[in-house]
Amino acid sequence: MAVGDGFPYANEFDKMGYDVFGIDLSPTHVEMVKKALLNVNVDGGDSEDLQFSNNIFDGGKSAKPTVAPLFLQLVFELRL
Known about the structure:
The protein is an alpha+beta fold and 80 residues long.
């Protein structure tokens, strides 16, 4: 969430072998990630309005402090 240019987090998780999905409001950031990190799935969108089915994610990382608690709550609710 709020993947930015993909560095350092998306890049590091990709190098560790995780399937990485990034989302960002900025079309410029989305294109930067698509060009630099070929294994990272990235899309444009609002990280505070995620539209994913249950149990699609095992975890999340956001450098934006207001988003991280929302995502963790979402993951917790989806696991119930």
